[in-house]
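Treating backbone geometry as a discrete language has practical consequences that deserve illustration. The amino acid sequence and the backbone structure tokens for this protein are reproduced below.
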Amino acid sequence: MRNLKTIVLLAFTQMFLMGAALAQVQHGTAEEAKALAEKAVAHIKEVGVDKAAADFTAKDGKWLEKDLYVFLIKFDGTMVAHGANKAMVGKNFNEMKDPNGKYFTKEMGELAKTKGSGWTDYLFTNPLSKKTEQKSSYAIRIPGYDGYVGVGIYK
């Protein structure tokens, strides 16, 4: 009986450790986020903003990698595409602040507009955990368009 308890305990421990390892695999890295943003810009250049926006927002999973998704925002703050939450499309986010009072959409837009690309750190609700978490998004200005694409990592 004691051996059975030990085996069951070891099995549960192994399942817990495997679950924790799999949960970590779901998180995209900064390098993967940057690569997905660059791939999104290339897709826009190939098919145009309207078609790409529809592709990024589609639920077919082609633009989702681990917990990474593409969003497309005009410099005026209007969300054009959002790979994790279609309900955000069409809304303006320029006046949105994170819990620390940071206007993160404005900051990303300014960064993309002035430097072409870069990282912005802020707090945001993770669509998987439904909790407010540290996030860092890589934004790239879209050539010939009044906006940028971004992909963020939850830390």
